[in-house]
Amino acid sequence: MMGAFGIAVLASAALPLVRLWRGPTFWDRVAGANSLNVRVALALAAEGIQGGKAVLLDVALAYALLGFLGAVLLARFGERGER
Amino acid sequence: MRALATALMVLGTVLLFLGGVGFLRFRDPYSRLQAAGVGDVGGAFSFLLGLSLLSGWGWELGVLGILAVLFLFTGPVATHAIAKGAFLRRHPPKEGG
Asked: Does A59 fall in a domain?
């Protein structure tokens, strides 16, 4: 079972998910994906510390790195590419 | 110590919620980026500070510190990249919007 803080942070991830779903522009969607990644990594870290599953901390670190990389790559691609 | 950690984590969760609400409610993409960037960095940093108060001395503290520094530096970088792309492509900021 998840702790209260993990559930709360995951519940706050619903807000950028809505923005990712119906963001009017491409940039809103990229920002929503970035925000969602931050919240998911925080929920993973909270589960790793409070739930005693310490492996999830490394998962959170890798997830945060890959999420940041994806957001910056999408932003650079949209800045240069044709859409 | 535990009360301080809980207070910091509650503050971080509230900041995450407020940033998400601003991200949904604001009108143009730059205001939304500002709400999302500030809420994410502040919320993530105080949440991780509270978690590291809970974790005690060990390698978990090191991983949490790395994660906090990562969020502190990559959040503004990602926000800047998105705002620069939006500015260069097709969304000039509105006056007074």
From this structure: yes
